[in-house]
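Archive entry. Fields below.
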Amino acid sequence: MSINTELQGRRYPATEPYQVGREKIREFALAVKATHPAHFDTTAAEKLGYSDVVAPPTFAIIVAQRADAQLINDPEARIDFSRVVHADQRFTHHRPIVAGDELLAELHVDSIRAMGDGALITTRAEITTVEGEKVATTLSSILVRGEGQ
Amino acid sequence: MSIALSELVAGQEIGRTTVEISRADLVRYAGASGDFNPIHWNERFARSVELPGVIAHGMFTMGAAVQLVTDWIGDPGAVLDYQTRFTRPVTVEDVDDAPGAVVEITGTVGALDPDNSTARIDLTVTFNGQKVLVKAQAVVRAW
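PREDICTED_STRUCTURE:
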């Protein structure tokens, strides 16, 4: 069954806050082979003016993909996750993410374009602190491959 | 350490590096990121959905490539904006005594914006001689 394009324009409100942990930043930094000391060492981070270890530039994907899951797992959307490939990604940081942040992500389904029985879907996550401070805007496009694509 | 905008010229190379990727790296990235799509760790599954084999997460390649910029600028928080398009998969082979894949990364100064104190760094990211990221651009704060 083809993807439901009527979800274009839908907004999924933020759910549970995401707690940015110091060990998670270290774990993610290791996973992307980042070596900058400010990801690992609080003293090095403080020297750069941060209150705690600072996240690598793509860390917000964790929060963004949790928000995206609301759409991908929405039975109304009819998306087969096994046929999803990532087409495009952008991060705009309003300020760096540091350990101790509590983040919320509001998901916007900016566009759904049918391509055969697949689709190109662009979502935007507006990431803020629980106090409402803007932290990052992420834009993701995923291609859901149709049969034979 | 910080980079002086006045010392940069468009077209200047900021550095180059290679990233070796193993299947274990993909498992580690899956765990750290929460992206457990089996196309990134299960060969049988990847082939069943018509992929050439296990492929790296696009976000792994994107995340690893930007380290060149982070290390050059000296502050991970100086990366204000970072974007890319994923055009080709990076197939990671299941081998013991060699990397499963090797990705090559080169960074060059793409544009300077003195009014906003930013520089755009363009990343060329190739695998087996072909670009896997296109329009990979990081905007950094520089003074």
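CURATOR_NOTE: The helical segments of chain A are 22-31, 42-47, 61-72.
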